[in-house]
Amino acid sequence: MKKKTSRATFSAKLKKKKQNLPPTKPKNLDVRKREYLSAKEIEKVKNAAKSLGRHGFRDWLLITLMYRHALRVSEVADLKWEQIDLVRGRLHVNRLKNGDPSVHYLEGDEIRSLRKLARDYPDSEFVFITERQGPLASRTIHTIIARAGVEARLPFSIHPHMLRHSKGYQLAGRGVDTRAIQAYLGHKNIQHTVIYTKLDPSRFKGFGKD
Q1: Homologous superfamily of 34-199
Q2: What angle, rounded to 10 degrees, do the helices at 56-68 and 39-50 form?
């Protein structure tokens, strides 16, 4: 005859099973109330990265390009010199996750900084590399940005994808056409782009007047 399991025994087994499971990742809203940074916060993070360690210039430029060109971690880790035309000031962005590739303009300070980076880290096909001449790992990029956020004394933890979101919200706040933002970020579906225009506060300006 099969022995019945008491409620207390069942609860104890369930509790033990939960204890053996890996910790669940907290929801973003439980960690921070927004998933983007303001222009001032971006500047603080960039300056903080520049002041940390002997690779400060490389890390500053890494964050600069990720923000300005809305690059994902995998896209910047895989960025190669053959995608960059320093003479014409062009950056060919290979979008992942089935995104549409595009060609972005490089600003003057980006061109000068990339030339310096090429001198500091020569003989590599990848733009951002380690001391062993290999491309930066995604985990390393996460660490660089998280550490810069702490050094910048931001009131919440940050991660690389926040830089991409920050550019989307910045463009929407400037009134840039949604289709143009979609193309710049490489979104296949415009529904992924409209989240930036939905939170753009400028469209509500004057709504509170009597």
Answers
A1: Intergrase catalytic core (1.10.443.10)
A2: 160
